[in-house]
Amino acid sequence: MSEHPERAVVRHARPEDLPRVVELVAEHAAYEKAAPPAPGLADRLTGLLFGPEPPRLRCLVATLPDGTLVGYATCAPELSTWDGTEYLHMDCLYLTETSRGHGLGPLLMAAVRTEASSLGLAEVQWQTPAWNENAIRFYDRLGATSKEKRRYSLPVEA
């Protein structure tokens, strides 16, 4: 999908990538000071990524020249009532600490934008914690704009 000068590659995740993706998801959660994923995440992701076509979730992975998977981005089409349009919601973008600052983030973002374009969507939206200054600087350098909002979660009672 995308290549870095040293031949790092960003591509769609394959089923055999899921164990490593789950490790990265757990690292990402710890980095954002969140609870770790519940057991069985690989099984749940399998259904979302590789279940009925079209998949509900898309996962792009960044791999080094030696094949080591060092990052991922997940995204899914969503709707905006105010705009009356669909957009691609990037749920996660994460690179291991040692792989940051080497051009892989822009490669992942380019792949997410390509994914949006392939789906006929004109915009990508996402959120990042207000304390994550490195991510904010990265997104600002890309030319992204932000809005002040809070994200809420409410469990659905059985």
Secondary-structure blueprint of this entry?
Blueprint: E1 2-3, E2 9-12, H1 18-31, H2 41-50, E3 58-63, E4 69-80, E5 85-95, H3 104-118, E6 124-125, H4 133-141
Parallel strand pairs: 5-6
Antiparallel strand pairs: 1-2, 2-3, 3-4, 4-5
Helix pairs in contact: 1-2
Distance between the termini: 42 Å
Mean pLDDT, all residues: 92
Number of strand segments: 6
Structural class determined from secondary elements: alpha+beta
> Roughly what fraction of the amino acids lie in strands?
15-25%
Properties at a glance:
158 residues; 6-stranded mixed beta sheet; 4 helices
How would you describe this protein?
- The structure is a single chain.
- The chain is α+β, with helices and mostly antiparallel strands and 158 residues long.
- Helices cover 30% and strands 23% of the residues.
- It has four helices and six strands; from the N terminus they run E-E-H-H-E-E-E-H-E-H.
- It has a six-stranded mixed sheet, sandwiched between helices.
- Helix 1 packs across helix 2.
- The longest helix has 15 residues.
- The radius of gyration is 16 Å and the shape is globular.
- The relative contact order is 0.15.
